Amino acid sequence: MSRVLLLLTHQFPHDSGDAAFVRNEIAALAQEFDEVRIVSFWGEGVPALPLPPNCRYLGSVGRVTAARAFRGLISGRRLRTLWAVAARARRVGALKSADLRAMLVGMSVAQRLQQLGARHTPFESLTVYSFWGVDIAYSLPWFVRKQDAVATRVHRYDLDEESEGYRPLRPAVLGVTEVLLTISDAAQSYARERYSSYISPQRILVRRLGVPGPDAPPADASAPERVLVVSASSVIPLKRVDLILDALAEVARRGHAVAWTHFGDGPGLAAVRSRAAELVEELPLLDVAFPGRVPVQTILDHYAHAATTLFMNLSTIEGVPVSIMEAAAYGVPAVATDVGATREIVGSAFGSGVLVARDATVSEIADAVVDVVEHLDRFDARANWAERFDANENARAAAAAVADLNRG
């Protein structure tokens, strides 16, 4: 019997959004299954990435209009499932207007999956892997059959109701999910605490994301004449790029030559750029550069050739920052706020950098920067990446967890 994987994404294989993650898993998934069929939630108009030979992109769901939602209702099986989903939601006190909207989306997407040819034949064994726990995942209660194997991955956006708000259809989506893959220990604990009535805690597994790394780290950045600092994010309030600037200005005031490069743009960039110009005028030991939003490869090339001393991330909310993984792959330690699951990649226990409190002062952050700069021999961020965040190793582990649902 042919083993088929139906991979449900938000954008992949279009080179946008979750392509940054799925592209690292697709080869491992392709090795585990005879055929991989891919359906995305969005993506038209964005170039598609090349796929392994046994992978086939069926298309995207497209915008769920009122007419399409109505057509999704025209099915006896889906209507019976709707009644069961609504009844279960009422029993756990979770039936809200967001659930009703998600039900309409789920039925519409399920119908679209049928139209795209995602359903298997009697001679195929189907595993469904939703790379997210929301949006396209709302189709799972209406699309999957009892004989199908189902895996769902959750990140932070689609899991953390404290920072992201109510996530609808949890009982229904997790009720048909056989294994839930989380990206961190913190996410696993959160899911086990909140959702054990929908899915067995033993079926909630940590399967970390990761990033590819260079074959070898760049030249040693020990005893730098200048502290070469990189940050990479949108310039929005929760990323606190202005706080990075203030902290590095304080480091310069203490006598360290600092060259800071921030990759990324956003509504706050003009104000940060203006403040930086003032500080550079005031502090001869401070230099800044704002290349703007650039391809990820540009940032990686910077690590490869600029002997970067330190990466900084002072966000107020995070999952496991991919930007820190990328820096670590090139041997760059980090100073980062202790939020979300950042402590699972940054900290003295890993030799990968220094954590600061979310409400740390400018002086305290500067202390952490100086601590790293003056003790670079204590840090081996690349070793931590190789052990915990190597994309190839993590992809194989995630693909095996999905494939194990339907082995034999």
From TrEMBL:
InterPro entries in the cross-refs: Glycosyltransferase_grp1 (IPR050194)
Key words, A-Z: Glycosyltransferase, Transferase
Coiled-coil zones: none
Broad EC category: transferase
Residue stretches spanning the membrane: none
EC number: 2.4.-.-
Superkingdom classification of source: Bacteria
One example GO MF annotation: glycosyltransferase activity
SUPFAM superfamilies the UniProt entry points to: UDP-Glycosyltransferase/glycogen phosphorylase (SSF53756)
Keyword Glycosyltransferase: yes
Protein name: Glycosyltransferase
Organism: Microbacterium sp. A8/3-1
